[in-house]
Amino acid sequence: MNVTKSAPTRHLYWETALDRLELDVIRAERMLDNVSVLELEPWDEPELEGPVPADLVDRALELRARQERTLTTLADQLGAIARQHAFAERVDRATGRTDQPVYLDVGA
Fold first, then answer.
1. Domain that holds residue 15
2. pTM of the model
3. Is 60 a domain residue?
């Protein structure tokens, strides 16, 4: 049974959904600054009625722009990591390196 929510309740739901999205963007932005902080949580699409309330449109558009910038940066960094990994694999094959640990005593 789908119950129509009042305008203030719909507004609160939209505001909460934007809060959750913004926290996800903040996490992704921080992850870009410190890759060791990789904590992904599952995301589920909120059930929202009607369009974004007029006073939240600017916030939603800015959030979308931040998501797009973060996505572009993440994609660029993943591409760089993939290229580095491929290069390391080529070096390993060319040098006949095994997966065995190798220790070098630089004090000798």
1. 7-95
2. 0.54
3. yes
